[in-house]
Amino acid sequence: MGRHVQIWYFSFLWTCIHGKNVLFFFGIDYSAYSSQDSCDTINSISSPTNITPADDAGLEGGIFGNPVIRTPHLDELGRKSVRFTRAFTPVSSCSPSRAAVLTGLPVHQNGMYGLHHNVHHFDSFDKVQSLPLILGKNNIKTGIIGKKHVGPNGVFPFDFAHTEENSPINQVGRNITHMKNLVGSFLDRFGDKPFFLYIPFHDPHRCGHTNPELGEFCQKFGDSVSGFGTIPDWEPTYYSDEEVIVPGTVPDTRATRSEIANQYTTISRLDQGIGLIMDELTARGHINETLVIYSSDNGIPFPNGRTNFYDLGIHQPLLISSPVHPRSHGQSVASLVSLLDVTPTVLDWFRIPYPRYKMFHHSPSVRLTGKSLLPALDYMSGGQTDLMHQERTVVFGSHNLHEVTMYYPMRYIRGPRFKLIRNLAHESYFPIDQDFFLSKSLQDLLLRFRHKKDLRWIKTWPQYLIRPQWELFDLESDPLEIHNLAVDSKFQAILKDLQDQLTAWLNVTQDPWICGPNQVLEDKGSFKDNPQCFSYLF
Question: DSSP letter string over 348-392?
């Protein structure tokens, strides 16, 4: 029988081949579906169900150090996993992050520059070889249950698909009973074959922008008491404003605390959904042959979080539970890892080489810059816990847009101590997305600013909107990323070294934005063998 791998990335991914299966939970942040698609109430739930990882969840969970939020199922998974404590997304935005995870390529290379749905309409390039496409070509059955949010379908094909493209998003992304049943349907159909199951949850994404009647985070959906149906397998967990933990880079106001309390409640739905899926795997005899991966697409939807390259936006949970590495269970790895490592990890699990191809006719062959994390599990099982740390000293990221109107390209390089962010559109204001703008926490912040009241924040509103071209932070002495060292003469050597490493990565990944603002890249014709950046400012 095939081997199994299970991955949780606040989306759920599950594969099986030659005795191996993969299950992928992937957390996501999503708020722009129409009310017709997302506000269906739950009257009775009898259809098949599958569960996806969280959306915009960040590091919210007991296993990740939050002593308030109660996530017993996620904690149990953590005890059976290796926990990567310094895992980072290459982009802090919904569709771009999902595309990066499922292709192993940063957004400037795979083409998913912004959100996929509706008027935004971004797609990956037609020739991209995604994880489900490669697996399908190797006779692995693929499934997705939850929020897909990427395209085109020819690049991201699945044999079994229940997503926002054919179902109400809340039913396939938040209704954990329905999701559990869909997982059962997938296993009934493909459980005797190698498979890959990807389950991207819609929780705990905001929904106050599209469906305010369901609460800021859709915490009323299926709660049995608010008039929006019942999810039979969900017992909501509630929190007071006083007990929640406000991250140090977020305004600590009553409005913020109220929203975080509701966010915690939706995370309880996600957590219980994970438990249901694990029970489904156990009952069907797959649990001991499945690799499970759990993570999130980006950080929480608060200031300095989602759409930002500050750590609140890019530092993500990452759990990998391998049935063939039991000695690694319960251990932690402090090495720097990237979510670009997910695709090479899954391919390594199935022993499938990455294909050789070109994105465009005259472009170089595409190659992955991520690496398999399975050697880390081998090292943990053998006690060699520092080997991966010696191999990687930095991770990288790339962002162009979120919504189609939110053009603000950024790049980052992060090491154990220093982080450098390049804001290419630094002469523009940092853009605010629709669902965050309408949130109680941001409206309260804006009201405080207009009336010159205490923001209860580490920044002023103008400081958040107006950013310099380069931001350099010493994360050891300044974990809240307040003091920009890019203009400090004592740190110019570090600045130059990070800039050079970032440029080298952008070259390898064929970044069209490599020249930066107010410059033109010439890389064809007489410049084919010696590309140049030319400034048009004098």
Answer: HHTT-PPPP-BSSTTSPBP------SHHHHHHHHHT-TTHHHHH-
